[in-house]
């Protein structure tokens, strides 16, 4: 699960950076504000890669997905990208758990024989 979820979060790292570039075009936002928020979100996406397997890591990932979706109020295309990455997050968690279960089952079978 860790690999799939981390891949999704790293993809979001780049998307957030590009969204920051788009948000800089908004006259109502200062460059410092845009990069403080974008930079914090980018850092959070990398930190989440490391804590994804710890208790509450997946739930923090879901909160991150909600924040990414909410960023659509500033950069409207983020509504679409937030939905796409939310679906990727769900798939990463869902299929990642199935892969982890299969690996554990194969390891137990190999150990037993």
Q: How are the elements arranged and paired?
A:
Layout: H1 2-23, H2 31-51, H3 57-70, H4 77-112
Helix pairs in contact: 1-2, 1-4, 2-3, 3-4
Brief description of this entry?
The chain is mainly alpha-helical and 113 residues long. Helix content is 82%, strand content 0%.
Detailed description of the structure:
There is one protein chain. The mean pLDDT is 94. The chain is elongated and about 65 Å long. With 113 residues, the chain is mainly α. The protein has one domain (2-112). It contains four helices and no strands.
By helix and strand content, what is the structural category?
Answer: mainly alpha
Number of domains: 1
Which segments are poorly predicted (pLDDT under 50) over 5 or more consecutive residues? none
Strand content: under 5%
Q: Sketch the major β-sheet.
A: none
**Pattern of helices and strands:** HHHH
Tags for this model:
113 residues, mainly alpha, 82% helix
């Amino acid at each position: 699960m860790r690999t799939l979820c981390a891949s999704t979060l790293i993809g979001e790292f780049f998307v957030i950076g590009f969204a920051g570039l788009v948000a800089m075009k908004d006259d109502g936002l200062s460059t410092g504000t845009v990069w403080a928020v974008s930079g914090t979100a980018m850092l959070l996406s990398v930190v989440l890669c490391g804590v994804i397997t710890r208790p509450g890591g997946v739930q923090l990932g879901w909160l991150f997905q909600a924040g990414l979706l909410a960023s659509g109020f500033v950069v409207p295309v983020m509504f679409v990208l937030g939905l796409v990455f939310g679906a990727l997050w769900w798939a990463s968690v869902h299929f990642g758990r199935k892969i982890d279960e299969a690996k554990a089952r194969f390891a137990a079978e190999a150990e037993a024989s």
